């Protein structure tokens, strides 16, 4: 029986490696799948049944199952349960072994375990872009004609060096413009030489992971987490350790310190997806924790341009006195996503290493585009575009808040993360299945994301992550009441707790 195999494997792991219980169960389940004791497409027993059969707490079981889901071994089916992924590789017999009279051969073109995980988990491309899709921006107001003129100008002026790869970390005037902007608006202490121009946040994260951590090192990530960061760390072979987020930001405990980090990834100005703003005391605490573990802090400031109330809190980089914070941002939220330009601010001691590695790994270029962007910023067009966008998004945000107001009740749904950014989070009472609710909303032509889908280990968060950046104001005014009505109906008829993430 499965339970007998799992108990035997856990006993071996506990004796041999002294692993914690949730890790023992994770390894035992993984072995069961690789050995074929849990076949492709086979339904996993519920977390309640597993906890009872194995004499474990349900939280231990849920933590193991969620980690396997993150890594692509398990797949959830709404309302049905959790199943073994069809693509999970099986243990392969030796080359000389035979089965059914046929030579045993490796599957041609089979993905690696890491490849399976990357291709089967947190797939944002599967989500149709519709009103309320989070993470999307409205670039219809972008001054395309002006941008084309600037690009054409710099293409006409291009000399041979501008057509080659770049070894200096990016176009110098663009690096200076970024440095000037960050010093004034985000209290980042830097010199232009510390700025490395990348193709966006994903590349910045992968650079940090490759240069600052070894394969198998632990990275702390917020739980719930930004999918793109999780995938970047998966792709670079790091061990992901989720740390819960509360209303003050990431909140590590003594138990988390048992998994000392090499990297700590955070979104402190507007946690993605809950929208929590990390308080100043919590920022100092996080820096102290990083110092105690000799860890690097990766600060992703992805949407700080859009703050609608109160002054921003100083960046972690601005508070850092040890030179252990790497700060990253992007231009895509103000200009347009396809621009694919971002920036990474590295400590002075790392500048040369990052520039060299960036060149060796990525062969950066696009100098004429970078030159056009530098002039776009220097001439004040970036600031103008930002002012227009901020006003437009503020109106859309207010319209969405008004539409959701009728469902906000004491002890019921509430909103978090509306003070900044291009999305907010409608937090729901525990009994509501947020994934089923998101699917019902999708049937009405609207796209929201369930908060629980961003959770790595937690099973206590339910909500809807709602974007207002992509939808025009008229669409929000029209569709907001539809969204609110769907939530009201769910509140009137609460459903049993979701079964598709935790297996129960």
Explained architecture:
The structure is a single chain. By secondary structure, this protein is of the alpha/beta class. The chain has 3 domains: 2-97 and 107-121, Winged helix-like DNA-binding domain superfamily/Winged helix DNA-binding domain (Arc Repressor Mutant, subunit A); 126-137 and 385-492, Aspartate Aminotransferase, domain 1 (Alpha-Beta Complex); 144-379, Type I PLP-dependent aspartate aminotransferase-like (Major domain) (Aspartate Aminotransferase, domain 2). Helix content is 41%, strand content 13%. The strands form 4 sheets. The chain has an 8-stranded mixed beta sheet, sandwiched between helices. The protein is globular and about 70 Å long. Mean pLDDT is 84; it is low at 91-108 and 494-504.
List descriptors.
four-stranded antiparallel sheet, 504 residues, 16 strands, globular, disordered C terminus, Aspartate Aminotransferase, domain 2, Aspartate Aminotransferase, domain 1, single chain, eight-stranded mixed sheet, alpha/beta, Arc Repressor Mutant, subunit A
List the helices and strands and how they pair.
Layout: H1 2-16, H2 21-34, H3 47-54, H4 58-70, E1 74-77, E2 81-84, E3 98-99, E4 102-103, H5 113-120, H6 144-156, H7 172-185, E5 195-198, H8 201-212, E6 218-223, H9 227-235, E7 239-246, E8 249-250, H10 254-257, E9 263-266, H11 280-293, E10 296-300, H12 316-319, E11 325-330, E12 342-345, H13 351-362, H14 367-378, H15 381-404, E13 414-416, E14 423-427, H16 434-442, E15 449-450, E16 463-467, H17 473-492
Parallel strand pairs: 6-7, 6-9, 9-10, 10-11
Antiparallel strand pairs: 1-2, 3-4, 5-12, 7-8, 11-12, 13-14, 14-16, 15-16
Helix pairs in contact: 1-2, 2-4, 3-4, 6-14, 7-14, 8-9, 15-17
